[in-house]
Amino acid sequence: MTENLNLQRGLLRHISQFTEVELLDKIKVQSIATEDREGGGWPLVHLSDGRTLRARLLVGADGFNSPVRSYARIQSYGWAYDRHAIVATMNHPPRGPFQGSNTVAYQRFLPTGPIAFLPLSETSSSLVWSTKPQLASALKTVDPQVLADMINAAFRLPDVSLCYLQDRILDAEQSGSPLKPSQFRDELAFRERSDTIDVRSAYSSLAPEQSSAGIPSEDADAVPPIVTSIQAGTIASFPLRFSHAESYIGEGQGVRTVLVGDAAHTVHPLAGQGLNGGLADVEALVRCIEHALLRGGDVACDKLHKLYSSTSQPVVWARSVGLEVLNELDTIKAALMMSAGSERHRRRPGEVGWELAAKSIENFATGLDNARALGGSLANVVGDGVRSLWERGGSGRA
Ligand SMILES: Cc1cc2nc3c(=O)[nH]c(=O)nc-3n(C[C@H](O)[C@H](O)[C@H](O)COP(=O)(O)OP(=O)(O)OC[C@H]3O[C@@H](n4cnc5c(N)ncnc54)[C@H](O)[C@@H]3O)c2cc1C
């Protein structure tokens, strides 16, 4: 477990080493537009301080409601779980000398959703409790001591008793007379007695002798430490949903955009993988950009990916000629990119990709002699390749 604040502090410290990185704090992205330029402009990011940034590559790391995703018109699919996650930081006594450190995470899968107890320090742990929205809302507004007792119960009592206690909380909220901590304690004591829970067992959350001193009960490791209070200002809740963007890379209007993290995908927090998925996205993106730049390409690496993953003959040929050469030859580049595998480009029946590419460069081929006239081995290399393509296209061989 690493607290988000610590992660953020570490990252801020790291980026402060790079003088070329400017951090814009307390500034919002107000809108994003496309630069009006022939051949397609770059994204223009309008900031709340009046500045406009022109982005060679705009990375949408802007969360579930990603403005970058909306700008790039990338669809996102998924569903709501009809569950909210209530989070809080819980205080509890340290583990006893016979129990070791507070390093064990606990998760109980209740019929309404999992509740997780995630250690932060010897005396504090983090709560993530996925439950029905109505109950999450009630738990957020009850007296924090009632919430602490309810958390203890949620790790210890049978489901039927938990349902009873939850109903008590919901009823009290609906009636407008919130439960007092002492009232809830009475209810809890009643349920523990009905469930024949021994007060010396770790499954009792009310035993007065619940302390870290002495030899722990046999079942002490089966449940997390007793929560004694909730840290002020730490209770919050979040709606949970699964979503996945149709594409992580923008095309058309969204060209030069890429999505990472929750902007690209959100998952249920029960496995604690959301942030980790985002970090993996960033690692993959960095690799992709490095790959492109080290080969003299552009940071908008979608087309490079298509070019390198294609096995079509003209594209393989083009790869060996070299991207730098092709970059200068717009007509060929366009034709090859088209052949490089865009699904959106529908071929007519019987028409193979390289034929299309060859047709697209027909006009260019006639101009090659002129290029040769300029001399230079470069033009010859390209010329031979194009001619070979053109001849194959003419004979109809695939
Ligand atoms: C209850 C809960 C528990 C979780 N527990 C875990 C866990 O244990 N482990 C784990 O790996 N993941 C966990 N996750 C998931 C994790 O929190 C997310 O996956 C992660 O925060 C996503 O990071 P992100 O940077 O992509 O998006 P966000 O954290 O949503 O950050 C997006 C940022 O963009 C900013 N932004 C948006 N619009 C604008 C704008 N117009 N201008 C300027 N800034 C803007 C927002 O202010 C925000 O700071 C949990 C999620 C929930 C809901």
Q: What are the main properties of this structure?
A:
single chain; 398 residues; seven-stranded antiparallel beta sheet; three-stranded antiparallel beta sheet; 15 helices; disordered C terminus; FAD-bd; FAD
Order of helices and strands: HEEEEHEEEEHHHHEEEEHHHHHHHHH
Q: So how many helices?
A: 15
CATH superfamily of the largest domain: D-Amino Acid Oxidase, subunit A, domain 2
**Domains (count):** 3
End-to-end Cα distance, whole Å, is 56 Å
The class by helix and strand makeup works out as alpha+beta
Beta content: 15-25%
Output the CATH topology of the largest domain: D-Amino Acid Oxidase, Chain A, domain 2
CA radius of gyration: 31 Å
Gist of the model:
By secondary structure, the chain is an alpha+beta fold. 40% of the residues lie in helices and 18% in strands.
